[in-house]
Predict the 3D structure of the following.
Amino acid sequence: MEVTPTLIQKKDNGKYLLIHFDDNSKFNILSELLRVESPSADVQGHGGPKTIVKNKCNVLINQIEPVGNYAIRIIFSDNHSSGIYSWPLLHDYGTNQEKYLQEYYNSL
């Protein structure tokens, strides 16, 4: 199912991304998760193993930029800005946030 956001904004000075979708789901996605799971090539591994990004518990969302009608780019307080977050990816992160965070913390 294809979902489209109806609201996107940063909350708590950039600690969370608040996103509402047209399927009536609503998520507060932690900025740390968005940063460490960035879909950028430097995090996802350039075709090789995924990079475990450490020490991002205090990273904040500085800015959100639209990318066409299908995604956003997030500029973080550590200047990372190369990830393109599609609507299905953000919906997945919201739905499975606890699982992804636990997997991340276990990998540290």
Observations:
- The CA atoms of residues 64 and 105 lie 26 Å apart.
- The first helix runs from residue 31 to 36.
- The longest strand covers residues 5-11.
